[in-house]
Description:
Radius of gyration: 27 Å
Number of helices: 14
Keywords: Aminoacyl-tRNA synthetase, ATP-binding, Cytoplasm, Ligase, Nucleotide-binding, Protein biosynthesis
EC number: 6.1.1.15
Subunit structure: Homodimer.
Protein name: Proline--tRNA ligase
Helix content: 25-40%
Strand content: 25-35%
Largest sheet: 9 strands, mixed
Main location: cytoplasm
Structural class: alpha+beta
Bound molecules: adenosine-5'-triphosphate, magnesium ion
Amino acid sequence: MRVSQLFDPTLREVPAEAEVVSHRLMLRAGYIRKAAAGIYTHLPLGLRVLRKIEQIVREEMDAEGGQEVLLPIVQPAELWRESGRWEVYGPEMFRLRDRHEREFCLGPTHEELITELIRSEVRSYKQLPLLLYQIQNKYRDERRPRFGLMRGREFIMKDLYSFDRDEREAMVSYRKMYDAYARIFRRCGLKFRPVEADQGAIGGTGGSHEFMVLADSGEAAVVFCPKCDYAANVERAECLPRSVRTEAGGEERILVHTPGAKSIEALSTFLNLPKHRLLKALLYQGDEKVFLVLVRGDREVNEIKLNNALGGFIRLELAGPETVRRVLGAEAGFVGPVGIPDDLTVVADLEVPLLSQTVCGANKADYHYLNAVPERDFRLDKVFDLRMVEKGEACPKCGAPLEAARGIEVGQVFNLGTKYSKIMQATYLDETGEEKPCVMGCYGIGVTRTAAAAIEQNNDENGIIWPVAIAPYHCIIVPVGAKDAQVGETAEQLYWQMLGMGIEVVIDDRDERPGVKFKDADLVGYPLRVTVGSKALAQGQVELRARKTGATELVPVAEVAQKVQ
Ligand code: ATP
Ligand code: MG
Ligand code: MG
Ligand code: MG
């Protein structure tokens, strides 16, 4: 590629909204351009990086027996209604209608779709295990799209879904993916750490790990033990319930209080919401009863089908005691989660596996979720194990004080158990002819986010320092001193020689000052730079420079291609 032809519009000034370094550098170096909030165009250099990451992911998925498919982005609402997630996924889902008023969404994830495929096509244990994956756009209308590719509304994800005969086999698949993820991020040249995770809105029972790229700009807080291998997302912390995000405000709120407080009325006034938007559930923590009041600003709350016997997920916010008191009055006895600071609001995704079909009309307008009987109608016992692990606390494994770090979640592995296969009847016949639900797992990697995370970890004041494996090109040849015909000629010869050797090389053939060329090369982040200049050339040499260390050496012209390779 010739820099004179490369479509690489660099920028001097970046918009103020670009807060993190990866976002700034990707804009400045001409990797991306914004189309709308959280939606980007990937320019040639940017796309090459994504393709590199995808290829690494693909190779490692294939190595573990994964088979690539491509699932539709536009997904019918019926499938999501079946799983119960159409109602509970909330405003993060992009929804649309066709000309016949049929409802669809743009896939934020693909559990429903793939489960539908498997239930139609898999009959026998002989067809299992099955590991299917895809690499494609996902759509999530994030509340706060930001940080460029790190939190987009349209982004590229690899997701693999595993289908196994039983838990034991499912653990084999889980382990395979866990190991593959470690190889992928290692190959991408990233410093990362797998941490124990909670299971967010996807749910499931069998455990989960997140792969965190450690970087100060990371949105996730992790704790790790310096002595042993224990590491966890702070959100999860020691068998925490579902994800707990610290984020004040928002439209959804859950308040925890004891029975007898002047609950719903007070809430309704305080939040200026009609009562039917307050969904009240009787839950309990250990033996103690507590009330949860789910408040959602959007219409959907009335439509949550809590009585569909299938369970579902509700996004909850748990307010700290101070907030509860403010809302409910000082007499409200607070038995909420321990360890949550007074004024902090945390968000939790609670799984509500309902045990019976008939729960009190919670999905009708103006009905509250009353008179539900714990154990008969739902079980929420684990949910209140809320605790945030903090720096300095004793490691649950070895007792050493935990340390804290920030992390970017680049991937996550989930054991889903039979959550989706039971709801959607993805079953197979075992050796004895008995019908059993497949045991599932799902495994995601953010391709676009990984590219951004790589920059967060590898940059300096001059620009990006790509790990070689995911660099858009490996080497740039920079001829300096246009007057010397031999410079241009040698540079061209090297260029063609390297191309012939399969090296991904760029030549800066622009009529620019050396300083400009060097600056741009550093900004774009080519791992190696070969400078062809009159002085060294007179000795039959060129200068080879490593972007990462800045180290330069003079190398005979005849040897440089070999060295670059
Ligand atoms: P987060 O906690 O950051 O919102 P998530 O847990 O919702 O991410 P998953 O459902 O686990 O994300 O999706 C798998 C992977 O997809 C994530 O590990 C991440 O790398 C990527 N990903 C998720 N949301 C986004 C997004 N909005 N923009 C870019 N990548 C994303
Ligand atoms: Mg998310
Ligand atoms: Mg997450
Ligand atoms: Mg995740």
